[in-house]
Amino acid sequence: MIALKYTAFAVIATLLNLLFQFLSFSLYDGVASLYLAMVAGTLAGLLAKYIMDKKYIFYHKPVSKKSDAAKFLLYSLTGVFTTFIFWGTEIAFDALLNTESAKYLGAVTGLAIGYLIKYNLDKNYVFKEQSV
User: 30-63 pLDDT, tens per residue?
Assistant: First the structure.
């Protein structure tokens, strides 16, 4: 059941990421627009995924806003490595295929790989005390 929920949440976070990238491109399509879009999408997906994972995957109940902020920081830090995978894959697809849809295909591919790795990082380091 956890695998199904985690997959569903990864799909939701991926769709949010892509939506924010699309909106970013709609607002600005100039120099470095891909990088700005990736940052916007990453932030949207990160926040949504943290909330879903915290509540419905690892059942974490923070004791205070300060402890929740600390947990979010650790969650974000473990995501740095997986974000490089996601960004690298998206940039590579965009550069190699050079089509409008290539960047989105690269984003989905990179996010899928990253989320597989991220689950294990979160289970073993971020939410270790709540791991199921």
Answer: 999 999 999 999 999 999 999 999 999 999 999 9
Tokens of residue 8, six digits: 């569903």
pTM for the model stands at 0.86
The alpha carbon of residue 42 and the mean position of all alpha carbons in its chain are separated, in whole angstroms, by: 6
Asked if 91 and 35 touch (Cβ cutoff 8 Å), the reply is: no
Backbone φ/ψ region at 32: left (φ over 0), alpha (ψ -120 to 50), beta: left
Helix or strand or coil: residue 90?
helix
CA atoms of 6 and 52, how far apart (whole Å): 9
SS3 98: coil
Structure tokens at 83: 């974000």
Smallest Cα–Cα separation from 94: which of 42, 21, 28?
21
Residues 6 or more apart whose CB falls under 8 angstroms from that of 33 comprise 24, 25
